[in-house]
């Protein structure tokens, strides 16, 4: 099954995507995580993406399409993928549709996670991430046992540079302008589209998500 998780920054795409992928035995493909790994590794892609990410702008489509083409090329008739943060523009959606058509697949489900801006802003302000194992916490909702220390691997937790209030405001604008139009794009397509209220506890959102997948 190929599932797209659409939604604004901070709505919980990563939190939910990891769990959903595990539940349905699919691969979790998060372009934000892939880009942050490229930056940490100091690759050419990482260097090119850095400025866009720090300013809260989208990385150019061609870089993203190149980044995910290897993953998409590995999809076959049976494998599943939960796409988190991709596609983010109509150009990326068309590239995805083309890659899936090459292996006689299509997008099986598009889920839009929704929450009000003030919820998103609070979540992003409270987010802390482990640079070592990738675990994500929230000082308001799911704090680590020891302040600023990862429960899983003991490494230091840090705040994402693009989670500062001004950049968050810009990311929300970019989402509305560049990514939200995908909702009507998929609304007109053959792929089913479901909307889920993501302003609920993590487990409730996950339950709704898994029900959508099974529907
Ligand atoms: P990316 O990393 O994809 O960022 P994003 O889409 O802005 O999403 P976030 O990671 O901020 O949030 P999320 O929805 O995953 O929420 P999370 O689960 O962490 O992209 C970063 C940048 O990379 C982009 O700005 C762009 O520059 C570039 N990029 C990436 N993909 C691209 C593409 N396809 N094209 C072009 N550029 C691209 O949750 C947030 C916080 O809330 C966490 O602390 C979490 O613990 C907490 N939380 C989650 N759910 C709940 C809940 N139900 N209740 C309480 N707390 C919750």
Offer a concise description of the structure:
The chain is an alpha/beta fold and 215 residues long.
Instruction: Identify the bound ligands.
Output: BIS(adenosine)-5'-pentaphosphate
Give the beta-strand count.
8
Element-by-element helix/strand order: EHEHHHEHEHEEEHHEH
Helix and strand content put the structural class at: alpha/beta
The CATH topology name reads Rossmann fold
Mean pLDDT: 95
Shape assignment: globular
- Helix content range: 40-55%
Number of helices: 9
Distance between the termini: 13 Å
Runs in which pLDDT lies below 50 for 5 or more consecutive residues are none
Please identify which CATH superfamily we are dealing with.
P-loop containing nucleotide triphosphate hydrolases
CATH architecture: 3-Layer(aba) Sandwich
Strand count, sense and closure of the main sheet? 5 strands, parallel
Cα radius of gyration in angstroms: 17 Å
Could you say how many structural domains there are in total? 1
Going across the major beta sheet, what is the strand order? 2-3-1-4-8
User: What fraction strand?
Assistant: 15-25%
Describe this protein's structure.
There is one protein chain. The protein is α/β, with parallel strands linked by helices. The protein has one domain: Rossmann fold (3-Layer(aba) Sandwich). It is built from 9 helices and 8 strands. Strands 2-3-1-4-8 form a 5-stranded parallel β-sheet, sandwiched between helices. It has a 3-stranded antiparallel β-sheet with strand order 6-5-7. A hairpin with a 5-residue loop joins strand 5 (127-130) and strand 6 (136-138). The mean pLDDT is 95. BIS(adenosine)-5'-pentaphosphate binds next to helix 1, helix 2, helix 3, helix 6 and strand 6.
